[in-house]
Amino acid sequence: MYTPQQIREEIRSGNWTAPTSGACGDYLQANLVVMPEQYAVDFERYAELNPKPCPVLEKLPAGSWRPKLAPEADIRTDLPGYRVYRDGRLTDQRESIEDLWEEDFVSFLIGCSFTFEDALKADGIPLRHVEQKKNVAMYKTNIDTVPAGPFGGKMVVSMRPVHKDKVRQAEEVTSRYPKVHGGPVHAGDPSQIGITDLSNPDYGEAVTIGEDEVPVFWACGVTPQEAILQAKLPLVITHEPGHMFITDRKYEEL
């Protein structure tokens, strides 16, 4: 059983490049957004206006890469995957951002639904993507977010199949954790939120959905990446979807 520090060491050394779902199940995991300080006020406002997909766990001061949620960690190296966006385009995917770091970079750690997966499992709700050793399926929707400055666009959701008799139970369990997206935004017919093909996710990997199961959708921390594409900032860095920062804090503390 890995500790968060051990997993971060494995990531830093290049031995762990896989998604982090199921890793250190009782610890908080976080999405990452890094941008020049001049845009951070607008992004923080965007997150405040959209707490479901963008619940900020921590904002790091300009130039800092040591989060309070894991004081010995380095957010420049301790995620298994990063994305680099320039002028609204994805230009690079990498395992470290040390050489890109600037003293005016402000970083945001945003709650991740991987955090409440351990609570779902403990309540007898299995996770198909973990069983199939896949990254969770994520989809763009037709749900508008509230804009702020240059940031706006549609919400992204993650999907987990849930037995039809346990959907209410899944809603109740996840609603206890609003700082990691809370309860689902939709359950059932995906076309009602603009998703036309569950077998073709925009991020992550498709999973099997049984005849007695319902697709349940939670707001996703990949939503800021869609907002970043719309904003077309000169440079923004995020996590690779599904490849999160594992903190030293247990989700029970929420």
State the gist of this model.
The protein has 254 residues and is of the alpha+beta class.
Model description:
The chain has helices at residues 4-12, 37-49, 114-122, 128-131, 167-174, 223-231; strands at residues 27-36, 56-60, 82-86, 89-94, 105-111, 137-144, 154-163, 186-187, 213-219, 236-239, 245-250. It is an alpha+beta fold and 254 residues long. Strand 3 (82-86) and strand 4 (89-94) form a beta hairpin. The chain is globular and about 50 Å long.
Q: Please tell me the CATH architecture of the largest domain by its name.
A: 3-Layer(aba) Sandwich
| DSSP summary, beta strand count | 11
Helix content: 10-25%
Question: What's the total helix number?
Answer: 6
CATH superfamily of the largest domain: PSTPO5379-like
Overall 3D form = globular
InterPro entries: D-Glu_cyclase, Putative_hydro-lyase, UPF0317
GO molecular function, one term: D-glutamate cyclase activity
Keywords: Lyase
EC number: 4.2.1.-
